[in-house]
Amino acid sequence: MSMLRTIKPKNARVKRALDRREPQIVENEKTAIFVRGQTSSDKVRTVMKDLYALKRPEAINFSRKNDIHPFEDASSLEFFANKNDASLMVTGLHSKKRPHDLVFTRMFDGRVLDMIELGVEELRSMAEFSTPKSSLSARPMMVFHSDLFDTHPTYIQLKSHLLDFYNGHPLTDLPLLNTLEHVISITAGPLSQSDDATTALPLVHFRVYTAKLLASGSRVPRLQLTEMGPSIDFSVRRVQSADEEMMKMALKRPKLAKSDVEKGLGKKRKNIETDEMGDKVGRIHLKKQDLAKMQGRKMKGLKVKKGGAAKTKDAGADEAMTED
């Protein structure tokens, strides 16, 4: 089990810098680095160019070749990530054993968190589609079509990678429909019953569409999707899962103030809720009441003898008096 490093601040300036790196309620957008290995193909360079265009402006493209082998030695990746304050990386490689190779890497605390390797099987670049493109820094809507993205561990990790890469942190408020410019659709084929290893996993189809609102005759407009590219078919190759301790630290959330907790933010207190009007409502649980010991009105008819039998004579007299 790998231990996370702890840095003790030497002065106030270092302490402020470390505090900024602590978990935040709303994280900033993650920066991605696109770097090529010593050998790469035209298909790899085209894919990286299109993926870089979709990620801009939170993206850095390295034009020079680098001697990088992510699964064998991740020291170069960690150096680039710390130097450029980036937590996402895409490495483009090409070899006879693994042609047209892309390695998606996530970093945490300056170290590699997890990696997933994809092979580019089919490609239609963004330049091959003569259709309108989305604007810079537009936030896409991401749609995943397959049960594998919720059940298979490899595809669950791939879904997490792609969401971190293009969707960023989750929004507290739903975006307006007229701000939607493009949709990223990721589809995985059905898993065959004979597939017992990762070598036979189905392809992942990566498609990007521009969104256009049209009149529908009602208040809700009709959404028309037009493919803008790129159109990529990925094959899943090697996967390196995250260390359990490191993933636990990466998912750690900051402590919220008491006022924020009472307003309903973060983890709610037990039996305390906030209604639609913003008022704090509490729920109190009491023990089961014994109605036999409940004190009622002091009437003769309600008196009980020590033996437990009621005085029927007095009760009958009281009823006669009430009738008069």
Q: Total number of β-strand segments?
A: 12
Which of globular, elongated, flat, extended, rod-shaped describes the shape? extended
CATH topology: Rossmann fold
Fraction of residues in H or I helices: 10-25%
Sheet of most strands: 10 strands, mixed
What is the CATH level 1 assignment?
A: Alpha Beta
Strand content: 25-35%
- Rounded to an integer in angstroms, the radius of gyration calculated over CA atoms is 31 Å
Look at the structure and name the CATH superfamily: Brix domain
End-to-end CA span: 90 Å
Number of domains as seen in the coordinates: 1
Order of helices and strands: HEHEHEEEEHHEEEEHHEEH
Q: What assembly state would you assign to the polypeptide chains in this entry?
A: single chain
Weakly predicted, low-confidence segments: 309-313, 319-324
Average pLDDT, rounded to a whole number, is 80
The CATH architecture designation is 3-Layer(aba) Sandwich
Per DSSP, the total helix count is: 8
Given the helix and strand composition, which structural class is it? alpha+beta
Keywords: Nucleus
Main location: nucleus
GO molecular function: rRNA binding
Subcellular location: Nucleus, Nucleolus
